[in-house]
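Entry 12.
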Amino acid sequence: AITSIAAITLYQSINLMNLSLHTLGITYEALRGVTDVFDDAIHLLRNQSGQRHIAKRMRDILADSKLTTKQGELRVQDAYSLRCSPQVLGASLDTINYVYDIIEKEMNAVTDNPIVFPEREEVISAGNFHGQPLALAMDFLAIAMSEVANISERRLERMVNPALSNGLPPFLVKNPGINSGFMIVQYSAAALVSENKVLAHPASVDSIPSSANQEDHVSMGNHAARKCLEIVDNAYKVVSMELFTALQAVDFQDIKKMSSKTKMIYERIRKQIPLIEDDVVMYQQIHLLESIVKSKDFIQLIA
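Predicted 3D structure (tokens):
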């Protein structure tokens, strides 16, 4: 049961990481971000494989963008949520790869008790059923995916905040005095990020004895896996909200200057979700966008 939930959660985490990178690309264009931070020479010096991979992906996603900037062109450097995105998301990617290895091994493992060794004519009672490897892995993944949502919400906040958005209108509407615009979208994202902070508390540090204290140390791995799945679901919502916001923000730039990869996403989503001119009930668009980015065709589009 733990392995099944863990495998589903891992699969969704991989797709979410890919979505977060493409969303980051559109946010970079909306905020006219400085792309020097993706230079491979920087990441070679850190020698963290996930970080280097994220930087490479971002160079590819933004390769032909005319909206991003170079150091000193508009500013020397961006805030951490943009500038440190390879370091933050790279650490989460390294976690995903570690958890992938654990789950793949578990899927191909014998976890019965007792175990029958017919060639030795022995039956041995042991502990291969114990969920500790998965419990620790899922607690680790929960923290890593919480951070994907955490940094996503910080970028969303920058786009709606006129003090931080590099010239974008307040809350991303043309008439902000009578429209709240994307203010409530940021509220919703912040609420989910806060919820994830509670859910990210490790389950594996707990243990309740049972079976007359024969089973005196348990992994709590099922709790860890289910909590992690909930965190990933929340994170999907947060990144979808960032994408929703970034699409609105980039419409205040020249969309003809978007990179070919981000423009492809823009055109796909704009077929169903238009620019927000006046206040509407946002949850309908948010739910629709989340269903789009989780669809098989969209996952293949950004693969």
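Annotation: The longest strand covers residues 115-117. The mean pLDDT is 96.
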